[in-house]
Amino acid sequence: MMTIKNRTQSNFNIGSYIKEESLGGIILILVTVIALIWANSGFYDQYHYLWHEVKVGVSLGDLELKKSLQHWINDGLMAIFFFMVGLEIKREVLAGELSTFKKASLPLAAAIGGMVVPALFYVALNYDNPDYSRGWGIPMATDIAFALGIMSILGKKIPTNLKVFLTALAIADDIGAILVIAIFYTENIQTGELINAAIFMSVLFGANRLGIRRTAFYAIVGFLGVWLSFLYSGVHATVAGVLIAFTIPVRTKISEQKYIDDVCDLMDEFENAKPNNKELLTNKQSHLISDISKLSDEAQTPLQKLEHVLHPLTAFFILPLFALSNAGVRIEGNIADLLFHPISIGIIVGLLAGKVIGISLFSKLMVKLKLASLPEGVQWRHIYGAGFFAGIGFTMSIFISGLAFVPKEFEEIAKVGIFAASFISAVTGMIMLGTVKNKMNENG
Question: What's the predicted TM-score (pTM) here?
């Protein structure tokens, strides 16, 4: 009987994930440059009209749902991005880098430090102005795609374990950012709509418990029930994406052993099937391949299938489109006035200094208390460099700035601070990590 040497595993391929994120980050950089050039060229009016003035939507009797293209991107497409984030969080908690205390302790502590310290720095610089202080959540964010994209330029000088650490840190950071958005950047809550969302969420959780695996069911109920309820509730609709992701099943339809046994039997049949000596398969061979494909589908979890499909969509389409529609800041007046505005200063200090101090300090504390240890091949200088890379806030920072500030002027100032901090953080991180010598871990 034919044997399968390598047992099938549903474990997430962290290497493929990092490569996709790295490429997505490079694309983000290019799109951001395009948006900035477009917004500061003679075609700014067209840029503003396309993203802010063009209204798209539907009308059904008295019900009208029409929004600008930027609004649909930020509330619609970004909900898919946050759905993807929710899938990543669930996968990491169940079977990834956050699944055990030993694995999760260091990146989780680093993420907490990388959120709390930047927020404190921002508040310390803007506490006396309530309008400015609303931006405290902006420097808490880390853009993992941008960070890995810049990091990939250094090639083999970066240990794989450092990339895994930064990825786990960023996912933990995403949990914090989602909680901040849901709790602190939500106003005028419509309780009735949240009750509707809770009812539909109960339906999804019930379907999970009953063994319903059809992703179409979760998509329809999630969109028509949960997402639309959140859209009208006052709570940002992207939070719905994360909550829906938590309801996606993680059970396979057949066991790993049954998959191996059945595939081996089918492969034996395929090997013994009489060929027709032509390029086309025989009917029996074609049916056997279809049976193997069906078995492979049943051996995968719906969560991982969705993640596999959606990750390229978010990395190569949704996030670049978000950057193109949101990163086009028109610089008018003195750039120094924008950079040295209290909002901008708070963000720059938070992302540039707060991130590296918070991540390094909390990581050191965990190691000193013997609650965690540095990953194999990772030195403290690597952690400092990763701290600077975590200061690349970009996507999430821009997203939160749109929620934090109502006056457009404040939002534009915040974006200038985000760009400056992200650029300086990236360059500093590259210099620091690029000069690390390969040697055994330091302990101090």
Answer: 0.81
